[in-house]
Design goal:
Helix content is 47%, strand content 15%. With 297 residues, it is α/β, with parallel strands linked by helices. The chain is globular. InterPro entries: AKR (IPR020471), AKR3C2/3 (IPR044494), Aldo/ket_reductase_CS (IPR018170), NAD(P)_OxRdtase_dom_sf (IPR036812), NADP_OxRdtase_dom (IPR023210).
């Protein structure tokens, strides 16, 4: 079974899982790992100008030998002149059209003029340079500035989304659902990778035991239960296959989803003592270095 697609508010379809090509890899690594992802069955490739990986993604697309229609390519705007930015991305990727083009963060919007920036994005879609347009890391307040004058609504809002920040994004999720804006979720494995040992571990482990699945798969199943698209990544083929196998799992029960939500609302585990005091230690070290420097002048 495959993950299938999700229908966007503009009528286009979006593959429900994506392979992200963030800035952790460079040059040859990106091409190599992306080729591995495509071979494993990923067709939705997520990149961004700010990652500096677009050329490597373009090389991997070319070397895959697949026709353009077999792949779904997302990239993101990183500031400056919007028409120039998308043309640069297309040139880097070796493409004539993106499937999805996002404003990477509200901070990249010139002069914080959301209405003007979105008009430029609407023109990108009208000119056929991107089939769908959307945003990333936008709050309700940011979205409202676009929606009030938009001719074309954002199709997607890509956000960091996991059980521990669900309460923080409750209003955003509701607003997006009201306007048919699909949520794409990145960093959804944070309860395992960044906050192990927290309250979410218990309901996740219980669901994993029932399903015969891994905790990783349960967290991704939780994202699916929220109706969001999964954006994930790995350099290891076994992890890529583990993520795709979520499509073959039975769904989480309503009680399991509710238990994970409730545990997430408790927040992640508190930092260790060292990390709790590290900002103060860091400040003290900086002051000491500055004192030694000026004393030596």
């Amino acid at each position: 079974m495959s993950f299938g697609t999700i229908k966007l508010n503009d009528g286009n379809e979006l593959p429900a899982i994506a392979f992200g090509t963030g800035s952790v890899w460079k040059d040859k690594e990106v091409t190599e790992f992306l080729e591995q992802a495509i071979e494993s069955g990923y067709s939705h490739i997520d990149t961004a100008a700010v990652y500096h990986t677009e050329k490597d993604v373009g090389n991997a697309i070319k070397e895959s030998g697949l026709d353009r229609q077999s792949l779904y390519i997302t990239s993101k705007y990183d500031g400056g002149d919007i028409p120039s930015a998308i043309r640069d991305s297309l040139d880097n990727l070796g493409l004539k059209q993106l499937d999805l083009y996002l404003i990477h963060t509200p901070f990249f919007v010139p002069n914080q003029d959301f209405e003007s920036a979105w008009r430029e994005f609407e023109k990108i879609k009208e000119d056929g340079l991107a089939r769908s347009i959307g945003v990333s890391n936008f709050t309700v307040e940011n979205l409202q500035k676009i929606v009030k004058t938009a001719k074309i609504l954002p199709a997607v809002n890509q956000i960091q989304f996991h059980p521990y920040n669900l309460p923080q994004y409750k209003e955003t999720l509701e607003y997006c659902a009201k306007h048919g804006i699909v949520i794409e979720a990145y960093s959804s494995l944070a309860p395992i990778t960044r906050f192990p040992g927290g309250p979410v571990d218990v309901p996740v482990a219980k669901a994993a035991q029932r399903l015969g699945a891994t905790p990783t798969q349960v967290l991704l199943a939780w994202v699916r239960a929220k109706g969001a698209v999964i954006v994930t990544t790995s350099s290891k083929k076994e992890h890529l296959e583990e993520y795709l196998a979520v499509a073959d799992l039975g769904p989480l029960t309503e009680d399991e989803v509710a238990a994970i939500d409730k545990a997430g609302a408790q927040g992640p585990p508190r930092p260790t003592r060292l990390w709790a005091v590290w900002p103060f230690v860091s400040l003290a070290i900086s002051v000491h270095i500055m004192y030694r420097y000026f004393w030596s002048l």
